[in-house]
């Protein structure tokens, strides 16, 4: 069934677990997340990013409707979340497209402007029954962070400044930010970075503990594809609740497609390679869910 992200995050936090949120690009991603959640017997969040909406021609409704229909038909509890929204127009389209939650991302802005823009997004969210996540301390490395739609991480381009995994969220500033904006959850920079294809990130566990103490709302870890299982377990135990995973699904998808095409150079039916790709993503989903929410 389709449930709310706020509900899943609150349940996870109350029971000392995490809840994983996976990025949806294609229908097969949504189906794989549902299959992985059913196999693991654990709820999950399907999230669609502004970048993914841009890929679908800027049209939110078709991709959102597909993901919501997959969630409703599933035996697992699945929520629908709009991720990394920078455009106010996309934020305004979210309630009608069926989103119960949104991450409003003003993290590129200086602190004061981030606060003002996010507080405005929270007001809109409240008026439309949406749970709102925001980010303080830019996590960086997100595809499209540089040239719009370039699909390449900041790291891959060698522009590490504000995109570096060395960026950290200050606990006192985080507490003030949550109080000033009224957000329901806060994405923090604690050592992870977006779009990592190897799981080599090392998290700042002392900082996670300090943030947990200082911040009253659930904490969100972005860029979790690059975080090893042991680090994820420690992060959840220390109070990190929503765990965002995107790239790991694409690594599984593309690896399976590449392997299939390497042994069959003649097929033209996409189902031949989308089937193993969807299965590989479902296995990745189930593995993350057992670590984070098991
Ligand atoms: O908001 C999405 C996540 O932060 C995904 O990051 O692709 O590095 O796993 P990732
Ligand atoms: Zn993210």
Q: Key features?
A:
TIM Barrel, binds zinc ion, alpha/beta, single chain, 48% helix, 294 residues, 12 helices, binds glyceraldehyde-3-phosphate, eight-stranded parallel barrel, 9 strands
Could you characterize what this model shows?
The protein has 294 residues and is an alpha/beta fold. The chain contains twelve helices and nine strands. It has a single domain, classed as TIM Barrel, CATH 3.20.20.70. The chain has helices spanning 5-14, 27-40, 50-55, 60-73, 88-93, 111-127, 154-157, 171-181, 205-214, 229-237, 247-263, 270-293, and strands at residues 2-3, 19-23, 44-49, 78-85, 101-104, 131-136, 185-188, 219-221, 240-245. An eight-stranded parallel β-barrel has the order 2-3-4-5-6-7-8-9, surrounded by nine helices. α2 packs parallel to α4 (60-73), α2 packs across α12 and α8 runs parallel beside α9 (205-214). Bound molecules: glyceraldehyde-3-phosphate (G3H) and zinc ion. Zinc ion (ZN) binds at residues 84, 194, 222, 244. Zinc ion binds at residues 84, 194, 222, 244.
């Amino acid at each position: 069934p389709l449930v709310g992200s706020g509900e899943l995050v609150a349940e996870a936090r109350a029971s000392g677990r995490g809840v994983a949120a996976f990025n949806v690009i294609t229908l097969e991603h949504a189906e794989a997340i549902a299959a992985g959640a059913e196999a693991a017997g654990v709820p999950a969040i399907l999230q669609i990013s502004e970048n993914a909406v841009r890929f679908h021609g800027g049209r939110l409704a078709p991709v959102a409707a597909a993901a919501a229909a997959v969630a409703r038909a599933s035996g697992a509890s699945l929520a629908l979340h709009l991720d990394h929204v920078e455009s106010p127009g996309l934020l305004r389209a979210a309630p009608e497209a069926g989103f119960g939650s949104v991450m409003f991302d003003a993290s590129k802005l200086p602190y004061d402007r981030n606060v003002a823009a996010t507080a405005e997004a929270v007001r809109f969210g409240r008026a439309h029954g949406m749970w709102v996540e925001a980010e303080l301390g830019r996590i960086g490395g997100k595809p499209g962070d540089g040239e719009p739609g370039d699909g390449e991480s900041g790291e891959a381009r060698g522009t590490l400044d504000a995109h570096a995994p060395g960026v950290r969220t200050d606990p006192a500033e985080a507490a003030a930010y949550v109080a000033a904006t009224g957000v329901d959850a806060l994405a923090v920079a604690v050592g992870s970075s977006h779009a990592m294809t190897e799981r080599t990130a090392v998290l700042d566990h002392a900082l996670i503990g300090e943030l947990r103490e200082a911040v009253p709302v659930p904490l969100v870890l972005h860029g979790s594809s690059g975080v090893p299982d042991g680090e994820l377990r420690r992060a959840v135990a220390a109070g990190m609740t929503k765990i965002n995973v995107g790239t790991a699904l694409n690594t599984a998808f593309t690896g399976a497609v590449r392997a299939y095409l390497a042994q069959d150079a003649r097929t033209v039916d996409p189902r031949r390679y989308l089937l193993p790709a969807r299965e590989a993503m479902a296995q990745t989903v189930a593995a993350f869910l057992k670590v984070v929410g098991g």
